[in-house]
Amino acid sequence: MKIRLTVNGKPREADVWAGESLLTTLRDTLELPGSKNACEQGECGSCSVLLDGDLVCACLVLAAQADGHEVTTVEGLRSDDGLHRVQQAFVEAGAVQCGFCTPGLVVATAALLERVPSPSEDVIREELSGNLCRCTGYAKIFDAVRLAASRP
Amino acid sequence: MSTTEQQQAALRRARIGESGTRHDATPKVTGEFAYSSDLSAAGMLWGVTVRSPHAHARIVSLDIAEALAMAGVHAVLTHADVPGQKTYGLEFADQPVLAVERVRYYGEPVALVAAEEPEQARRAAAAVHVAYELLEPVVDMGRATEQPPLHPDRPTMAHGYREDERPNVVRHLVIRHGDPDAEGDVTVSGVYELGIQDQAFLGPESGLAVPDGEGGVDIYVATQWLHVDRDQVAPCLGLPPEQVRIHLGGVGGAFGGREDLSMQIHGALLALHTKRPVKIVYNREESFFGHVHRHPARIWCEHRATRAGELVNVRMRILLDGGAYASSSTAVTSNAACFAVGPYKVANALIESTCVYTNNPPCGAMRGFGAVQTCFAAEAQMDKLAVELGIDPVELRLLNALGHGDTLPTGQVIEGVLPTAEVIRRAAALPVPEPEQLPREAIRLPGGAGNTTRGEGVRRGVGFAVGFKNICYSEGFDDFTAARVLLRADGSAEIHCASAEVGQGVTDVILQIARTELGTDNVVLAPPGTAAVGSAGSASASRMTWMAAGAVRDACRAALEERQRTGGDVDVERIYRHPRTTPLDPETGQITGERSHVSFAVAAMRVVAEVDVDLGLTRIVWIGTAQDVGKAINPLAVEGQIEGGTAQGLGLALMEEIRTRDGLITNASFTDYLIPTALDMPP
User: Fold this and answer.
1) CA-wise closest residue to B258 among B608, B501, B30
2) Which of A119, B137, B207, B226 is the most exposed place for a label (fewest CB within 10 A)?
C-alpha cells in the first residue's frame, strides 16, 4: 500500500506491506538509517522517533499508522545553524561510545527537554529508562542531559 | 561550518593526556555514522541462516529443494557448498562453518539462504527441511567428563597444555605453589556459582560481503580483529588470504562478543556463489546464538590464614562450561586460574581450573575474560575470612595486598607498579552518601516503579571488592601491532592501523599519539582494513591502547627520521611488541621464563546497596571506585570505560543470566534478558 507522511519536515511517500514497521520503512525505503534496529520489541529505544511530537519506538509502529502523520527522526534534529543542543551536549559530555543507542537517546532527550525544560535527577533517569545503553553506564548521558538543559 | 561545529573541531584535536571529543561523535549524534547494519550495495541480496532447533542431534537428512524453488531465492547452501576447510575457530578449528552430520548447540548454523528481499529469505529458510535424530545433550558441566565426547578428535589437546584423558576436557590447568597442604589457624570455604552473561552489545551481528569479480571477496563487518577474521575466513573459502579483504564496518559495541566469527564466512559463501553482494543482519534473538558468552562457573574455595589475617594457603577448584566449541576457552581457563586468588600475597596455593565441552551455548571472550568469575568467589571468601577473624574486611585486604616485588602463585614476580594497597585505600576513603530518609519516591527504593515497598524491610549495606586482571596477551602468544605512517612533505600525515574501533575510543588514542609525536594536527586515520597494513591484534585483552599507541609512536618516529634523511614523502610501517611472555609449565602451572603475563591492572570498588529483605529486591545507591589506569591518554574516555564496565558488572551481579533448559536458551530477547537501564544505575 502507498503511504504519505511528513518526515523531518518534508513530504514523503512509500510503498509498504501491511506488516511493515515504520522503522523498516525509514531505514530501508526512505534511506534514513539513523534510527537503529537493536531489539524490535520496544525494549531498547534505539529506534526512538517523534510521531506528531510524541516519543515512540518506530519498531512498534506500523508504517501504515504513520500515513498522514509527521515523523521526526534523529536526522531531522540538526538545523542549518548546526547541531541540536542535545546533540552538541552528547558530543561534549563524552556520552557517545559505540553510539548505537545514541540516535534514540538524543531523540528521547530532545523530547524530554521539550516537555520538562529543567528535569530533576529522578525525572531524567525515569524518562530515559526506556533507552538501553551498553557502553557508558549512563553517567555521561546524564551529564549530557544536564548540559543540554542548562543551555537555551 | 557553523560556530558550534568549529568549536567542536578545535576540541577534537587533543594530544596525549587531554580529554578531546571523539572523532566520530558528530556523525554518531546525527545518525550519519554507518554501522555494519546500515551498509548496502547495488544488486544486494539478503542472507539468512538456518539454525538448529536442538542442542544435540544427528542430521539425518537435509532437503533444500522447496526453499531453492521459492520466489526471489538465489541460493541455498549447506556444508557441501563450503569449498575449503569445513571448520574454523579462533584458536582451534573445531567449529563447522555449517553443521556436518551433527549439531552441538541450539542455534548452530546448518544452512544459508540468499534472496532478493529479507522476508523472502526468511520464508525460504523456514522451508529448508532438516530431519534430526535427537541425541542426549551434555548440559551439566559437573558431569561432562563422564559423558561421551562431543569432539572425539580432541582438538585442544597436544598444544602444550596438561594432558587430560577425560572426555570433553577443553583444558585442565593446575597451579601448585609452595606447599599446597600448608595449614593455617583458620579456614573458610565456600562454593560459588555464576550464570552465563551475554555481551548484549546493542548493534547485532551484521555485515556485507561483496564479490570482486575475480574470485575474491570484500567483507565489511563489525569485528574485533580484522586479520584473524581473514585468516579464518580464507581457508574455508579455499582462497589465498590476499583474495579476502576484511574492512571494519561501524561497530555497535563488542565486549569480547565479536572476537569470534559470526556472518563473515556465511556472507562470503553466498556472495561468491551468487556473484552478488550479500548482506546479513541478525535480529536480537539470533544475536544470542550469534556470538559466544561469558563462561558460567562453579568454583570451590578454601582459604587458610593466620589468626592475624595473613593468607597462608588458597585452594580453589574452578569449573567452567565452555559450551559446544572451544573459542578462546583455553585462555579463559588460564586467566581464571592465574587471577583466582586476587591481588593478594599467598605463599602456598593449589588452583585447579578446568573447562569442559557441553551442548550449552558456546562461551569465550567477555570483558574480564575469566578473572571476573574467580573475583566473585575469591572476594566473597575474603569477606568470610574477615568475619571469621573479626578483622575489618578492608583491613584484611590491605594486610595481604600484592605489590611490586611480590610473587604470584605462578611464580611470576611483579616487575612494575601494582598499587593494590593504594586503590584499596582510595576507594575506602571515598565519602559515602548519608542514608536517605523515608518516605521517598518509589524509584528511590528497591523495586522502583513497581512500588513494592514504602521502605519497611529495606536494609542498607556496604560492599567492598578488589579486581585483578592481566593487560595484553599472555602465555607466549606473539602479541604485536603494526602501524603505518604516510608522512608528506607538506607535513600532513595519514596513519594506517587495523585496530578495531568498537566504541572504546582507540581511534582517538591513535590520533592523539600521532598528533603528539608528529607535532601537527594535520593527521588522519585511514579506514581500518587488512589490505593496507599488518595485523593490529584484537581490540580485546585490555591491550589495544597500549599496543596501538606503541606501534603508532614507533612508526611516527621512524617516519620523522626517514623524512629528515630523504626530505620527501615517506611511507613506513613498524611493528610493536611488548616484552615477551612464555607458557606455563603444563604440570605445575609455574612460569617457564620470567613471566606469563606482561602487565596487570587492579581496581577497588565500594558499593552502597539497599535490599528489601522480604522480597530480595536490590537497589544500588552509590558506587565508588579507584583503579590503576596507567597513563590516561584521554581521561574522559577512560572514565567512560570505567563507568560502562561498572554497569556491566552491576548487571552480572543483579540481573543478567542466559537461562537454558536442556541446552536451549529460554530468554533470547531484551524482554527476558535484562541489562541495566538508567534507573538501575546510581546517579
Assistant:
1) B501
2) A119
Residue B204 CB burial class (10 angstroms; 0-12, 13-18, ≥19): buried
Q: What is the pLDDT of residues B181-217, one digit of tens each?
A: 999 999 999 999 999 999 999 999 999 999 999 999 9
Residue of B23, B28, B248 to mutate, interface with A, max A Cβ within 10 Å: B28
**Average pLDDT of A135-139?**
98
Q: Which chain B residues contact residue A102 at CB under 8 A?
A: 28-29
Packing angle, helices A139-149 and B635-654, rounded to 10: 120
Q: Is the pTM of this model over 0.90?
A: yes
H or E element, residue B381: helix B371-389
Residues 59-118 of chain A whose Cβ lies under 8 A from any Cβ of chain B: 73-75, 77-78, 80-83, 87-88, 90-92, 94, 96-103, 106
| HSE-CB for B510 with a 13 A CA cutoff | 32
Written as nine digits, the cell of B395 is 583491613
Range A20-44 average pLDDT = 97
A140/A90 Cα distance (integer angstroms): 8
Q: Report the relative pairing of strands B109-115 and B45-51 from DSSP bridges.
A: antiparallel
B636 → closest Cβ in A78, A81, A94: A94
Q: Which chain B residues are Cβ-neighbours of A57 within 8 angstroms?
A: none
Q: In the prediction, which pLDDT does B3 show?
A: 47
- Bridge partners of residue B147, in order along the sequence: none
**Regions of chain B where pLDDT drops below 50:** 1, 3
pLDDT for the residue B1: 42
Whether residue A102 and residue B28 make contact (CB cut-off 8 A), yes or no, is: yes
Q: Residue A152: its pLDDT value, please?
A: 85
CB within 8 A of B419, min separation 6: which ones? B403, B602, B628
Spell A76-92 as b/e; 16+ CB within 10 A means b.
Answer: bbbeeebbbbbbbbbbb
Residues from chain B contacting residue A35 (CB–CB below 8 Å): 31
